[in-house]
Amino acid sequence: GDYRNLVALAVLREKQSTNTAFEDWSVAMRSQIPVEYLHHAWRVLPDGLVWTEVLADSPRPAAMSSAWGAYLVRRGETATALLAYEQASLISPNSRHAYHPTYIALLADFNRHDEALQRAYVGREANPQSETHIRLIVNLLQETGQHQLALDTYRQNIKSHPSLVTGYLVLLSQNENADIAFRELKRISLTNGANPEAAMAVAAMFAKTGQLKKCRDAMLIGQSTGIAMPNDVEERLVNRCTIMGSDATKQRP
Asked: How far is Cα 206 from Cα 212, in angstroms, rounded to an integer?
């Protein structure tokens, strides 16, 4: 029948007794109900019933398993969530469920970095516009000590994904130094235009070491490219750098 009628019956029965509502929810879940209703149903259904009956009998078992994994993550049951995502991947190995970002993150959390990285690359290949998978790749490379490859990954994708610039410059400063990051900031600003967020990240690096002039210069690049700023603006930026440096000093142990 219409899933809306089944959902309405399940909600009504739930108000009467949660002990019997799970029977109506299990029927509703087998009828292509939208994901938002799944989250409601799973609060009533026993976990064992979801695993053994509802997921197995669903007309969309991979999507259902993936959604179940997301729900378990929100409940803090990450080990069981990983099993749910793995089930989705086994059911549909060539679908988006096989490289779902949360699945990849869970693999990394359980120290399965090689598999996580492999799936992140597959996700990037399947969806070139996905910045999420690029960031996952960079983070995984960093976690496994492959810093240069992480930087190269950023460099290869900055032109098509300008929002990656900030992460790239921060990573560059961490693995090399702020001066190199500053040179890259200037180069990227000339080709891609001003990037205030990236400039602020580089400025903060200089502020932490008390290099206020370089901090100001980085901020100016973020304000505009090739346009002289009024003196009062420069003064305000220097003051801001001083405050940033002072805050950084206070936070040191």
From this structure: 7
d(CA 162, CA 159): 6
Separation CA 54–CA 11 (nearest Å) = 18
For the chain, how many helices (H) and strands (E)? 16, 0
Supply the pLDDT for residue 49: 54
pLDDT digits (tens, 9 = 90+) for 127-147: 988 899 999 999 999 999 999
Q: How far apart are CA 181 and CA 208, in angstroms?
A: 15
Nearest-angstrom CA–CA distance, 83 and 133 = 21
Joined together, the tokens standing for residue 223 give: 């304000």
How far apart, in Å, are the Cα atoms of 16 and each of 10, 12, 28, 162, 177?
10, 7, 17, 54, 64
Task: Assess contact for 215 and 203: CB atoms under 8 A.
Answer: yes
- Distance between CA 215 and CA 209 in Å, rounded? 10
Q: Encode pLDDT of 10-63 as tens digits.
A: 777 777 766 667 677 777 777 766 766 766 666 666 665 565 556 666 677 888
Contact 122, 99 (CB under 8 A): yes
Local confidence band at 234 (pLDDT 50, 70, 90 cut-offs): low
State which H helix or E strand residue 73 sits in: helix 61-74
pLDDT: which is higher, 110 or 174: 110
